[in-house]
Amino acid sequence: MSVALVTGASRGIGRAVASRLAEQGHHLVLHGHDPERIAATAGEIAGKFGVTVVHAAGDIADPATSKALARLAFDTFKRLDALVVNAGTHAAGMLGMTPDATVERLFAVNAAGAAYTLQNAVRLLARGQRPAVVLTASITGDQGVAGQAVYAASKAAVAGLARSAAKELGPRGIRVNAVAPGFIATDMLDTLDEAGRADRIAHTALGRLGEADEVADVIVFLLSEQARFVTGQIIGVDGGLTL
């Protein structure tokens, strides 16, 4: 059976991805920031789908966290076949009004955290069977959104990481892609006020927010054999927001 590592798996898109992969029979290494929440998530998924699920908690902005995840995966399974670099944080703020600490945190988690995770998983992925990676970027990183310039910049870094990693790791048989979700109904949207949320919906062709499961379906596809000739792509999952 395949082995997958999912970061940010205790809620939202990450939890939906973990559930989809477990449903397909993947063994899992799950990461979350909160120890109690990720332990509960791992227990629920293991109990429901009957797969082996191990977990670890920590701040993904700290490289020690992704190193510990790689060690856990090696000690338990000796390899990785799939990696979902999903852990992230969101904050909105106008330029000139965004605190320094917010700027630092957005880049530390979204950009540096993604790079640490991928770096520390590469050797295990090289041991895997048809290994594939999917990173969670954002449509804001490509299209830009007023009031979210710093967040957009941190997610643009994720897209750049995915494209460059695809070129570098392709000769080793490792595919790397990213998804760029639009506005998805998760608790990360709590940082948007009601007016901002209504505006995003009004500009989305499908006229609604997306669901975490809808993003998870695309991520699982990109990890699968059905996407075996797809690499270096940033796939929008935005309901037509960018049209």
UniProtKB/TrEMBL annotation:
Annotated GO MF terms: oxidoreductase activity
Record EC number: 1.1.1.-
Pfam families: adh_short_C2
Ketoreductase domain sequence ranges: 2-204
Signal peptide: none
Key words, A-Z: Oxidoreductase
Record-linked InterPro entries: KR_dom, NAD(P)-bd_dom_sf, Sc_DH/Rdtase_CS, SDR_fam
Superkingdom of origin: Bacteria
UniProt similarity note: Belongs to the short-chain dehydrogenases/reductases (SDR) family.
Name of the protein this chain belongs to: SDR family NAD(P)-dependent oxidoreductase
Taxonomic source organism: Actinoplanes sichuanensis
